[in-house]
């Protein structure tokens, strides 16, 4: 088994390692370091304004002339229901009072923000774009493909992977249930629940049902994870939590320490912070929200309602009232440079393959 694959050729990278687009935690330094080390760095642009996205791309282009990606959230068609928002605002009032925060004005500009991002990506010559939370409309896919931009989709089930292939994605991320952060799911099972299939089950089934390259994601932290993923038929890996605790990550020390001090049993999948299911470290906010007697407003509404609370909590070192996204392998997290992490993974993988 070789570490080069169809995907390393397609993305024009040396090693089959992708740094996940962790919205809110990537920095141009992290993205460029991963790309310069031979992997694929990704700008987590899910929450960026057009101005911020343009700045980040420019900075990454100054730091590397190697391929990098931009990750975008595909807009949802969720409805704004005033009664739901009022009810949630009443529930969140004590948290806001504790930090002296005003009630936010919810804006539903997700679609416009996404379309602006596509324009910037085309203008700035971004080589690779990855998508989470669904598949973009066909005209957007065609516009990007006309510029020879490589497209990466995200799937949590085989059906989602097939939909990504049919839509024209070049690569699909198989996001196992172990993955930290938001679930990339855009379908529900018969019980209206978000699919939670483990990486080891998801990858070989996906490989058998699509012809495009499959990247394994979820709980992978080292060379053992890379070799195991490729043995299952994946052509590479995507890692989030492993890069979250790296020196170049934008995560706060509070956040990095929380990951390092947690165990594999400490994470839960919850929608209380953003309105979308995401895996993170269990805390008081999640527990308290279990008492909430109504449906949580959908993403992006709930995300905007809790955003200032989470930021304020993180600023004062309160890990109990902020989101701490993490995958299920926190014991394997390391506080090292992203460059060293990539090097170590490749060294370990090669040693395993040569045994």
UniProtKB/TrEMBL annotation:
InterPro entries: Aldolase_TIM (IPR013785), NMO (IPR004136). SUPFAM superfamilies: Inosine monophosphate dehydrogenase (IMPDH). GO terms for molecular function: nitronate monooxygenase activity; nucleotide binding. Pfam families: NMO. Keywords: Detoxification, Flavoprotein, FMN, Monooxygenase, Nucleotide-binding, Oxidoreductase. The keyword Nucleotide-binding applies. Its cofactor is FMN. The keyword Ubl conjugation does not apply. GO terms for biological process: response to toxic substance. It catalyses: 3 propionate 3-nitronate + 3 O2 + H2O = 3 3-oxopropanoate + 2 nitrate + nitrite + H2O2 + 3 H(+). Gene3D superfamilies: Aldolase class I (3.20.20.70). Belongs to the nitronate monooxygenase family. NMO class I subfamily. Nitronate monooxygenase that uses molecular oxygen to catalyze the oxidative denitrification of alkyl nitronates. Acts on propionate 3-nitronate (P3N), the presumed physiological substrate. Probably functions in the detoxification of P3N, a metabolic poison produced by plants and fungi as a defense mechanism. This is Probable nitronate monooxygenase. It comes from Staphylococcus edaphicus.
């Amino acid at each position: 088994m070789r570490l080069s694959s169809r995907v390393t050729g397609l993305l024009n990278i040396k090693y089959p390692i992708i740094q996940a687009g962790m919205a809110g935690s990537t920095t141009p330094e992290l993205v460029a370091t991963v790309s310069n080390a031979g992997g694929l760095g990704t700008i987590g642009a899910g929450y960026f304004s057009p101005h911020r996205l343009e700045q980040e791309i420019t900075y990454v282009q100054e730091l590397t002339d190697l391929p990098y990606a931009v990750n975008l959230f595909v807009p949802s068609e969720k409805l704004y229901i005033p009664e739901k928002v009022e009810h949630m605002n009443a529930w969140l009032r004590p948290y806001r009072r504790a930090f002296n925060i005003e009630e936010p004005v919810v804006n539903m500009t997700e679609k416009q923000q996404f379309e602006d991002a596509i324009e910037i990506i085309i203008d700035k010559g971004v080589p690779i774009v990855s998508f989470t939370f669904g598949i973009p409309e066909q005209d957007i896919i065609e516009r990007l493909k006309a510029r020879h931009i490589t497209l990466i989709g995200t799937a949590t089930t085989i059906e989602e992977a097939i939909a990504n292939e049919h839509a024209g994605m070049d690569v699909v991320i198989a996001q196992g249930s172990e993955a930290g952060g938001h679930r990339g799911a855009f379908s529900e099972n018969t019980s209206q629940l978000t699919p939670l299939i483990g990486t080891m089950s998801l990858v070989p089934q996906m490989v058998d049902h699509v012809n495009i390259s499959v990247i394994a994601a979820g709980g992978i932290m080292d060379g053992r994870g890379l070799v195991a993923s490729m043995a299952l038929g994946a052509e590479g890996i995507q890692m989030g939590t492993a890069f979250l605790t790296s020196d170049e990550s934008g995560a706060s020390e509070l956040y990095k320490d929380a990951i390092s001090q947690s165990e594999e049993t400490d994470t839960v999948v919850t929608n209380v912070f953003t309105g979308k299911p995401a895996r993170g470290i269990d805390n008081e906010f999640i527990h308290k929200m279990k008492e909430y007697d109504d449906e949580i407003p959908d993403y992006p509404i709930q995300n905007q309602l809790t955003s200032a609370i989470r930021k304020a909590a993180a600023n004062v070192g309160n890990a109990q009232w902020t989101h701490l996204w993490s995958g299920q392998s926190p014991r394997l997290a390391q506080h090292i440079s992203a460059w060293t992490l990539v090097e170590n993974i490749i060294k370990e993988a090669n040693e395993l393959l040569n045994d």
